[in-house]
Design brief:
By secondary structure, the chain is an alpha/beta fold. It has a single domain, classed as Class I glutamine amidotransferase (GATase) domain (Rossmann fold, 3-Layer(aba) Sandwich), CATH 3.40.50.880. The protein is 27% helix and 28% strand. Strands 2-1-3-4-12-11-10 form a seven-stranded mixed sheet. Strands 5-6-9 form a three-stranded mixed sheet. Helix 1 links the parallel strand 1 and strand 2. The longest helix has 20 residues. The model has no long low-confidence stretch (mean pLDDT 94).
């Protein structure tokens, strides 16, 4: 990982809302790199898995030989942020469909559990550690986080108690789309995770 200068965050850019994540990251003063090939993972301080169509994203991850490189760098400690479909890609278990995910995050998810595109919704969310107003969560064909393992910390819930955001070590997941609002606090939170990880790595080298 890079040790000096602004953080360098990769954004999986094979499909989905990657451009919006790139914009959010650069607005916060970090550098963003679009990731389409394994070599694009080199030197990153973190990786974002964006919203999109989860089955298509997984097919393209395999088509570009990204599956094992992604699994390896995250297993080695690279911070990861998964949003909407990105949560499905990270999850260990998908209850609603037979999908070969990356199997990283100890959660169970159901794909498109809130309904079709026409049933998309927004809700104000209390998010642990955020000052100021609640965060406006945008849920578009969102997955439902049905269960979290013992090592997963819940950061936000919908009013009905459904998990909306969680964290396991340096892996952050939101079932909503933080890249579709002006509020940058979710990305800021992720950059803080990446910065802490880089500092630890520098101390150990």
């Amino acid at each position: 990982m890079t040790g000096r200068g602004p953080l360098l965050i990769g954004v999986l850019s094979v499909q989905g809302s990657f451009a919006e994540h790139v914009e959010s990251i650069t607005r916060l003063g970090a550098r963003a790199r679009e990731v389409r090939l394994p070599q694009h993972l080199e030197g990153l301080d973190g990786i974002v898995l964006p919203g999109g169509e989860s089955t298509t994203l997984l097919k393209l991850i395999d088509a570009f030989d990204l599956r094992k490189p992604l699994q390896d760098v995250i297993a080695e400690g690279m911070p990861a942020l998964g949003t909407c479909a990105g949560v499905i890609i990270l999850a260990q278990r998908v209850s609603s469909h037979n999908m070969q995910t990356l199997g990283i995050l100890d959660i169970t998810v159901a794909r498109n559990a809130f309904g079709r595109q026409s049933e998309s919704f927004e809700e104000d969310l209390a998010f642990e550690g955020f000052d100021g107003p609640q965060f406006r969560g945008v849920f578009i064909r969102a997955p439902k986080i049905e269960a979290c393992g013992n090592g997963v910390h819940v950061l936000s819930r919908l009013q009905d108690g459904t998990v909306a955001a969680c964290r396991q070590l340096d892996v952050l997941a939101t079932s909503f789309h933080p890249e579709f609002v002006e509020d940058l606090r979710v990305h800021q939170y992720f950059l803080a995770i990446a910065s802490d990880r880089r500092n630890i790595s520098n101390t150990c080298t």
